[in-house]
Amino acid sequence: MGTNIDVMSAYLDLTVLVDIDAALQRIMGNKKLLFKLLRNFKGREMAGEVIKAVESGDPSQIAYEAHKMKGVSANLGLKGLESALLGIEACAKAGQDASELVPMLEAVVDETMRLIEVILESE
Fold it and tell me: What is the CATH number for 27?
């Protein structure tokens, strides 16, 4: 079995952490709604649930929490989070330990939340 970092490298592309254009396309160009959704995004809390699931070692719970946050992230154009969560979800579904990916998730969440703040300041 390869390392989980190998799985992650197949999914994670940090060149675009946030894709506002993609998010706007999903919500029919409604910028006001996008800003509201970004303002209400509970990224750190949701990541905490993913991490708690990883710590529990329950693959179905890990996959559920990662998939849930991945969907929200995708809808908001949060590509870095979507990619990081795809890797965690893939590990869980493959029965691999996803704990090696937690530091990457934490770093991507922190940077994404910082970028969201910058985006909201431009509102």
Answer: 1.20.120
